[in-house]
Amino acid sequence: MKTTPARTWQTIAIVLIVVGVFLLAISGYLAPALKGALDPLVSVQQWLSSRYLAVAEFLTVPRDVASLRQRNAELEEQNARLEAQIIDLQSQLREADVLYALLDFARSRPENVYKAAAVIGRDPSPFLHYVIIDRGSDDGLRYGMPVVTAQGLVGRIAAVTSSAARVQLITDPGSIVNVRLKNGQSEVQLVGSITGDLTLEMVPQDITLAAGDLVLTSGIGGTFPADILIGQVISTRKIETDIFQTATVQSAVDFTNLRAVLVITNFRPVEITPLLPTQIP
Amino acid sequence: MIWANLLAIPVLLILAILQIGIVSRLPLLHGTADLLLLAMIAWTLQRPVRNGWFWALLASGLMALISAISPLVPIVAYGATTLLVQFFKRQVWQAPLLIMLLLTMVGTFLYHGLTVISLLFGGTALPIKDSLSIITLPSILLNLALAIPTYAIMRDLANWIFPQELEA
């Protein structure tokens, strides 16, 4: 009888072991063992992959920077263009707001005829408070016409050319406006100053002034129409020994940001100088 | 000389527009710079310039036209300043920058002084001390700040108009 060589038995054993392991793996009995063996491998693979990607990204960065720079330049240009558009639109919006306010004001007083004008400059002398507007005698403007905004009285026209006019603001040190207080019947004078502050003068001591009192034009003197708002009293100065008391007035108009005004063209100031009494020697 | 006179018209017109449109809206306290005065002094200080009087006349005419101040004020103030510039130019022209600063101070003070006198004569009540502290001194400061760049610009203009005289 011929004996089977040992090598054959070895081969058969290996095949049986492999087949057994294969069958065990298929049937799921080796899952825990496989998991334990594969997890470290997966971790190693993840680490390797992430490092590879990092190195690859690093090597391709110069190309990305160039494209990013180009894109950044494009976006910056677009941003600058949009910012310019925003500024332009904001400017137009502010102008429209001013014009709408003036239009509302003009509609609220239909008895007056208005001519809108833009403020194009200020008097070069810092001692004077005058503005220059872009309407003149060609537009029907005449010397002495009152100038207002939606907030209140601005001043009156002091000089006119064919296409421009100079307006003396009520804050000018040479300006005197006859006014009345809304709460009372007292009629007093409002004068300007070099600092632009408005002061009520010639106020009799028996009149009670209080902060918040509204100040309106009185119409006396014929320089301005009556009942145009000027501002409100913010503080008073009363000394018993003085004949008159004074008060500081906060103007309703912001004279530092005056952009557009309305000229009342159907009001003609009355020249009362010839009627004033003169001394006869 | 004709070019120097012609140059005065656009330069002073542009400066007048800048003055009423921008500079007058940028006060320091209540004082503002005076571009026409600065340009007039800086131009007249240039060595080859002989037409300082024309610039003074034109600047004062423009100021009288655009400002509500009495026309005599800019005419007298700018004329007197030009006279001083001519005098100093003849005496100490070797240090024109120092003279520019000095005449800027003197010119501003002169102009404001005459303005105050004019307003007081016109019946406007002006507190002199306040006028000095919140208008005149800040105006002098602004004018001094602008004096050097104005001088540099006017020197370039003079180089352009009078190249032969400067080279000689």
Strand share of the residues of chain A? 25-35%
End-to-end Cα distance of chain A, whole Å, is 174 Å
Q: Strands of the biggest beta sheet of chain A: in what spatial order?
A: 1-2-5-4-3-12
Oligomer: heterodimer
The name of the CATH topology of the largest domain in chain A is: Thrombin, subunit H
Q: Give the H and E element order of chain B.
A: HHHHHHH
Low-confidence stretches of chain A: none
Global mean pLDDT of chain B: 90
Note the main attributes of this structure.
heterodimer, A: 281 residues, alpha+beta, Thrombin, subunit H, 2 domains, six-stranded antiparallel barrel, six-stranded antiparallel β-barrel, 2 helices, B: 168 residues, mainly alpha, 7 helices, 0% strand
Could you explain how this protein is built, in words?
The complex is a heterodimer of chains A (281) and B (168). By secondary structure, chain A is of the alpha+beta class. Chain A has 2 domains: 1-108; 114-264, Thrombin, subunit H. Chain A is 36% helix and 26% strand. Chain A is built from 2 helices and 12 strands, in the order ααββββββββββββ. Chain A has helices at 6-27, 31-108; strands at residues 114-122, 130-133, 146-148, 153-160, 165-169, 176-181, 187-191, 198-204, 214-217, 229-237, 244-251, 260-264. In chain A, strands 1-2-5-4-3-12 form a 6-stranded antiparallel barrel. Chain A is rod-shaped. In chain B, α3 (52-66) packs antiparallel against α4 and α5 (96-121) packs across α6 (128-161). Helix content of chain B is 79%, strand content 0%. Chain B is globular, with a radius of gyration of 16 Å. Chain B has one domain. Chain B has helices spanning 2-21, 35-45, 52-66, 72-92, 96-121, 128-161, 163-167. Chain B has 168 residues and is mostly helical. Chain B is built from 7 helices and no strands. Chain B starts with a helix and ends with a helix.
